[in-house]
Amino acid sequence: MKIELPQVGESVTEGIIGKWLVAVGDKIEKYDPLVEVVTDKVAMELPSPVAGTLREIIAVEGETIPMGGVIADIESENEKAAPTTEDNPADLEPSSEQDKEIGTTGILLKDVAPVGPTGSGGIIDSASSKKGQNNGQNRGSRVIYSPAVTRLAEIHDINLEMVTGTGRNGRVTKKDLQNFIDSEKTSVDSKSIDQDDKKSSNTDSVRTEGTYPNVLANDEEKITLSPVRKMIASNMVKSATLIPQAWSLVEVNVSGLVELRNKVKDDFHKREKVNLTYLPFVLKAVSESLKEIPLLNSSWNEDSIILKHQINLGIAVAAPEGLVVPVIENADTLSISGLAHKLDYLTTRAREGTLTVSDVQSGTFTVNNTGALGSIASQPLVNYPQAGIITTEAIVKRPVVVNDAIAIRSMMNICLSFDHRIIDGEQASGFNRSVKDRLESMNLNTQIY
């Protein structure tokens, strides 16, 4: 039975194979976790749809597979192989009783030549058959490679017949091809080094290997990218290259907010069993400001702008495996207390690595609390394909001018990055001003529930 990568959401088109949790030959029960898959939304474990034995791993770790792509082959417990002529030739000859009673259940034949629409699979000579076993899957006299391997070979202009496969029956995997490409690059770099050394033989040239691409110096170390880091890198490149971004920063006097939180946080924790941080207050201000300036709650669609009527706030969380963005749906309908509960639930799941796809889907705007990391100013990248992202920076006491006098106040910077195709400076400034006014108006009379 071929195991395919299931579709987990409309916006998720591909996934990276993170780590196989089973090995070829392992016995597997139904719903046992097979592999960790990383998408641009979340990391998840894929369970086995059947009980059986893992026959082949088709998609190797680190390989990017489209949704619906085949990743493994499992011999299920209900699957029975047909007898071969070597075991008992007579068993393949139909008996008279079998001729009389023909059922609708077929027999799976292994290691037989494929047939065409007319029933003929063509002539397969032993030479071409052996050649196919060394490099890929053999159909007739033609070697078949996976689409990912073919694409990579075309990009680097590689003759796949030169690559030794380590997959089942000598199948060439993406990892085999990447190792071949890396070895070729290293060979070319070594030749370049030798030529440069000959040219500079009359000079005092002290060169390190790190001067050349893909060759490490003695004091360098290569860190293999995790699937999560690859996905983050891909999303950041997409954001930086596809969205023309601008940004605007304002400072906010949050002295009243600080006084309010300090007064209620202990009682709130005793009553609600969750911490009351500054972030729920910010989320409340942001969600209300998005209703006031809805253009920030949209996305670009080339010939149109898609305005989102639901306000679903993505919260950037630094999880152990990398940055994740769980989503609080309909944030504008929640109180500050409700936002605190939802925030605690999602951040806990993010740090435990137990987020589901539904926890990270449908975000329309993102909030990033970089102040928790000690930052006082930052320029975030918009979370593609959203229209904007806002950061809240560290709250710092400093002297400011109040009523023509110098006073000490708790100050916080907020920075908005936005898609300039959708948002102009006027709307961006209006949104920042709206968030600023709401935060500065919070005091001891502000309702938490």
What's the total number of strands? 21
Largest sheet: 7 strands, mixed
Query: According to CATH, what is the topology of one domain?
Result: Chloramphenicol Acetyltransferase
* Shape assignment: elongated
Folded structure, characterized:
The protein has 449 residues and is α+β, with helices and mostly antiparallel strands. Helices cover 30% and strands 23% of the residues. The chain has 10 helices and 21 strands. It has helices at 96-100, 126-135, 147-156, 174-199, 227-242, 255-272, 279-292, 336-352, 357-360, 425-440, and strands at 2-4, 14-20, 27-28, 33-38, 43-47, 52-57, 64-66, 70-76, 137-139, 142-144, 245-253, 298-300, 305-307, 313-315, 317-319, 322-324, 327-328, 365-368, 388-392, 396-402, 405-419. The strands form 6 sheets. Strands 11, 14, 17, 18, 19, 20 and 21 form a 7-stranded mixed sheet that branches. The chain has a 4-stranded antiparallel sheet with strand order 1-8-6-3, with no helix packed on it. It has a 4-stranded antiparallel sheet with strand order 5-4-2-7. A hairpin with a 2-residue loop joins strand 9 and strand 10. The longest helix has 26 residues, at 174-199. It is elongated and about 80 Å long.
Summed up:
By secondary structure, the protein is of the alpha+beta class. Helix content is 30%, strand content 23%. The protein has helices at residues 96-100, 126-135, 147-156, 174-199, 227-242, 255-272, 279-292, 336-352, 357-360, 425-440, and strands spanning 2-4, 14-20, 27-28, 33-38, 43-47, 52-57, 64-66, 70-76, 137-139, 142-144, 245-253, 298-300, 305-307, 313-315, 317-319, 322-324, 327-328, 365-368, 388-392, 396-402, 405-419.
